[in-house]
Design a protein that fits this description.
single chain; 192 residues; alpha/beta; Beta-carbonic Anhydrase, Chain A; 6-stranded mixed beta sheet; 7 helices; globular; binds zinc ion
Length: 192
């Protein structure tokens, strides 16, 4: 922890670099990814403060939209799309994802009931070989499932119908840094 504290202490010694951010935020992209510490959206994309609106969940799961049972995830998505007016949403899964791996293998998660219920209740079980340590195929199918879920959000549905929103499915390799994107025409993930 101490190195992180030391860095945070010196970080605020350059206020001139951030003064303009007091005026507000106008990010163009909502970036939805896993909470995994190996995935660092700003590092991957080179985004500066104010450029990426982020939603991070265990397994980059987009939960079902239910207006009667609002979730933090739905609120974040709705705010990004409706209020901030982002033009693009990226759902980015990653290799070696513990959440997707647990789902594919059917791990016993009774010791972590919140994780178990979040994973099994919020998303269909991803398809793919459990023996692949990257769980690449499973993560990629899982990302597409989340994108489909995203399309059912009323605010997303409206913007898509108006042609004012683009959705992207990405797959990030934590062990190489490579980013692959889903190509709808070939229904495959290829290098960006
Ligand atoms: Zn993950």
């Amino acid at each position: 922890m101490q190195p992180l504290i030391d860095n945070a202490r010196t970080f605020g010694q350059r206020p001139e670099e951030f003064a303009a951010l007091a005026a507000g935020q106008w990010p163009q992209v909502l970036f939805i990814t896993c909470s995994d510490s190996r995935v660092v959206p700003a590092l991957i994309t080179g985004a500066r403060p104010g450029e990426l609106f982020e939603l991070r969940t265990a397994g980059n799961i987009v939960p079902p939209y239910a207006s009667t049972l609002p979730t933090g995830e739905a609120a974040t998505i709705e705010y990004a799309v409706q209020v901030l007016g982002v033009s693009d949403v990226v759902v980015c899964g990653h290799s070696h994802c513990g959440a997707v791996g647990a789902l594919v293998r059917g791990d016993d998660l009774d010791a972590v009931p919140a994780v178990r219920d979040w994973l099994t209740g919020a998303t269909p079980r991803p398809a793919g070989p459990a023996e692949d340590p990257c769980v690449a195929e499973a993560v990629q199918s899982h990302v597409l499932a989340q994108l489909l879920r995203l399309r059912s959000y009323p605010c997303v549905e409206r913007k898509l119908a108006d042609g004012r929103l683009n959705l992207h499915a990405w797959y990030y390799e934590v062990h190489t840094g490579a980013v692959l994107a889903h190509r709808p025409r070939s229904d495959s993930f290829t290098a960006l």
